[in-house]
Batch of 3 targets.
Target 1
Amino acid sequence: MSVTHSFRENRSRAEEYLSRYAAGTIGHFIDGRWESPEDGATFENLEPAENQSVGNVALGTEQVMDRACEAAEAAFLPWASMNGAERKKLLNHFADLIEKRADEIALVESSDCGQPIRYMKQAALRGASNFRFFADKAPEAGNGLSLLQDHHTNMTMRVPIGPVGVITPWNTPFMLATWKIAPALAAGCTIVHKPAELSPLSATLLAELAEEAGFPAGVWNLVHGYGETVGRRLSEHRAIRAVALVGETTTGSHILRQGADTLKRVHLELGGKNPVLVFDDADLQRALDAVIYMIFSLNGQRCTSSSRLLIQNTIKEEFLSALKSRIGRLRVGHPLDPETEIGPLIHTEHMQKVLTYVEGAREEGAIVAAGGNRREDLGTGNYVEPTLITEASNDMRIAREEIFGPVLTAIGFDSESEAVTLANDSAYGLSGYLWTRDTGRSMRLARQLDAGMLWINSENNRNLSSPFGGMKQSGIGRDGGDYSFDFYMETKNICIAHDTHSVPVLGQ
Ligand code: NAD
């Protein structure tokens, strides 16, 4: 895999892979065909390590999106009627193709979104395993229950809901797209994918693989462009039965509004301001490693990042001082360098936003205990120092809003109840992390904390069968395992009489 190669080797192979995107327009994939806009309208795709162009991308319009939705609609019935075993075979074949191009996927993804290659080398393999996991479930996805009564039997079955829209963000675009598309296709839905405009390359690669795998035309459609135009149109379109969005909370609200007239089913995986609670009885070394990993891996651009450290005051000084010295040793650098631990942020505007939060923290009276600046010595890329904010209070913006960058805000607490109050005093409720050796406390807090997902004495550990999703303004719905099929399928109830009951008689 890429990480075993040197920086120089990674760069030269990435350049080779990226050169073909620079050569022409990166097109839409609709109804089995690649297309570029007739009027030549495109937008430029910049990579974040040097802010150089990596090609022009077709700028989707409402008309283009309409055609994609209609293609998904036309392909739906044949795809939904294909038997599950055949779908399983095709999805597994698709996973094989992902694995064959794993190296390319890792390098393209890392170059396009700035995530360090040390993490992205897993992206393709995780994407493939998402497909294999749901492929295996395809033959039985329609199964239901049999509910016996004296005179009737109720039987449930699941059928695919219809064409679905999949709208994804830029932070780990390949993995997130596969996480949504795999269960949708396994369920028998057709899809229209609208990837983030800031990271269009791995979505393009996925559509190329879909073509190579031989999915029937219209089963997999890809439209590039802006959220406010093509994303909106996708969530409004009458042919689309459900929309799965991974994105910001405000985007989730837009989707709800835009989908209201056609009563879209929605699954929203949104932002977070996730607390990590460290009690003084915890294994502090493991806690320290996990706290650092969960905020600084993936450049802090991670929905489940533990961006609020709630630390018991008895160990606060000791823990923060260890944290500070480790932060000082984190390696910020080019995403293709295998040594890099923190890469550039996705876009200069996003970098500015992150830096503005740090400035705001100073103005509100918090201390910037580590980092806080752009790494100008690294050139023109969007590099930001890993940052620790201390002496913060939970009412400061730095503690309330999702920053989506390598910035950790630390707040002290005295008691268990104070820790819970602070943790829950947030508009969000995506994930939480709890560090304590006290099992009773773990169980109490598991019930009390507002989090769709809680990890106890662990960093984020993903199990494909487990439910993934958030509470409050972090989202609506869950996916993972059978939860995904509940979203991408309709449950029908069929009630069959045993011919033993009296049918009510009127008009005799
Ligand atoms: P974003 O909401 O700006 O964009 C996400 C997608 O929505 C993009 O494809 C965008 O074009 C599209 N979009 C924007 N406006 C739209 C509209 N009006 N209608 C339809 N589509 C629209 O998010 P982002 O900046 O790309 O990604 C970062 C966000 O994603 C963060 O808030 C992060 O927490 C969240 N995220 C959540 C999870 C999770 O599982 N909860 C996972 C990863 C990222």
Target 2
Amino acid sequence: MLAIRTQFSNHFNYNAALVVKSPGRINLIGEHIDYNHGFVLPAAIDKFIELAIGKRTDGAIHMVALDLGETIILPIHNLAPHATVWVNYIIGVVDQVFNNLPSIENNLSGNENNFAKIKDDFNGGFSICIQGNIPLGAGLSSSAAVECAVLFALNELYHLSLTKMQMALMAQSAEHKFAGVNCGIMDMFASLHGEKNKAILLDCDSLAFTYYPLALNDYSIVLFDTQIKHALASSEYNTRRLECEQGLKIIQEKYPTVKTFRDISLEQVEACLASNDVNRSKVYQRCKYVVEEIQRVQLAVQDLAKGDMQAFGKKMFETHKGLSKLYEVSCPELDFLVEAVSNNENVLGARMMGGGFGGCTINIIKKSAVEEITKALTANYAKKMHKELAVYITSIEDGTHIVEGTH
Ligand code: GLA
């Protein structure tokens, strides 16, 4: 395949100013707790979105999705959610740049001439070619990678002076507004902040973060992709968020000093939410999981710091159980894949990863056993689930970065 820079010049008859890469992510532990003010432990991986971008002066955005062979052209002003899904990940962040002009002006510390020039330039529009190898709908955050790649590129191209955290928050808002998923901050944060061979502990309340070297030695991180892409994912995701908010409110009524799930004990969850009423008991289950998972991640990080990967892996299995039984975001295929490796001495830990209802399990597997386990699991998965298993042996890589630039 031709280099993306060449594809850009072939398509637009001028040279791209920048080529940017943005990775997908894994999450070791801390699932469905980013939007509940917990802690997550993601890392960027060796699957990525790549784009080439160059300025225009006609006030239009020309977007080419190379993998799909689709081109869409829109005026840069008055952007609204579009019927073509991938387009929303691009125009969603453009809309965010317009919405955040006051903070951009602030970042430029009152240099008015500079700001006026940037605004003018940005209104001219841009051309973009985009491609990638992050499997879609596999829970590896391909959409966040697109959003981060585009925003990072715009930040460079127009000298917007945005910090990575500002970009992560803007990309998250773009996903809410243009993709309709009320996601947390984890995916965008990880794609932008990733560092080679490091996991990142993110405090989703204060947004403080710490890098942890991931010395896996004889072990590999292996993702087993169910190849199930449930349509339920975004609606159920938003429902889980609401159920948690509902539970938090009930607990706060009785314990007014409680600000977030961080401040809640399991006893308080029992006291306020345990009930025979079906709706109420769903809220109870969700909140129980969230409180347990917040505590579990904190302990898991201690395991990681001590290098006790055995204990860490055990917690991954516990997380899966919680996600499957209490939070109810798993599916039979994910449960099957976790169950199948749960008593294997060469597998330290396994669990469903990401939003759920399909996508991948994340597994920590002894390198020498990866081939054998993969072979057996692929055969059993085909036999029991009548589906082909996709397998990704992943490495941990750097976050969003410029590959080449001439601007
Ligand atoms: C999706 C969301 C994230 C996070 C995970 C679950 O990936 O985009 O914000 O909530 O699900 O942990």
Target 3
Amino acid sequence: MSSKFSRLTVALGLTLGLAACSGGEETSTEGSNASIGESLDYKITGIDPGAGIMKATTKAIEDYELEDWEVIEGSGAAMTAALKKAYDKEEPIIVTGWTPHWKFSKFDLKYLEDPIGVYGEEETIHSIVRNGLKEDLPNVHKVLDQFHWTPDDMGVIMSAIQDGEEPEAAAAAWIEENEDKVAKWTEGVEAGNGEEVKFAYVAWDSTIASTNVLANVLTDLGYDVTLSQVEAGPMWAGVADGSVDAHIAGWLPLTHADQYEKYDGQFEDLGPNLEGAKTGLVVPTYMEIDSIEDLKE
Ligand code: PBE
């Protein structure tokens, strides 16, 4: 009974409120009229501070003159959790996004157009190894040099992990189903004898997938593989100072350009292991904006 009354009161109050506004100037208090910036408190959901995409996003804020906006630091996992939460309620959200990534198969998403080109064009992911690896572990070097796959291959592992599989198990299952591809990576390679191989990687879903698949392949070949999860800076620094043997997450030409220049000469670039990568600002398709310029209002 009392609930009926209170509901009536609210409805009446709303009617009066609208009536009071109707003759006046425009109001933006209603959800759908609020600007995209207001509805998001001018926040872009970012990832780990060391990621190249964070630097690019800071540059985007400058180049598109979005001084009211900021990119919030977090992690890849926190970003996808925030994305899921907003998506389930059809609320607005803008994330720092990249391809290949499982989020595009789980949610309907789009990249915001980037007319200035802050995020660059298509990228490739390179395998980066320490100087001297070729002499010390020629067969490991050869596998890394021959390692090459597609965004779809990587996507299978990423989705399996997302669905709850352990990264190692997801990688092992993919290897079992793709013996022909793995055979090309291991062509002409001799088995190891327990030699240690150290990879550095960052907890980006794409990198977790690729690092686990190579760790599995090398373990099957008889190597003793260690994976160290680090931030992006230490991942590059570790290969440069030789404390790790390799990482396979060199995003080029733009995303990791800083580290690539900083450590020039202190690593060997084995070239692309994947083509068709991309970074940018990503939103659910239900959002009405299409371009980073639309954030300016
Ligand atoms: N990423 C995924 C990384 C490279 C791999 C796009 C988040 C970065 O921004 O550095």
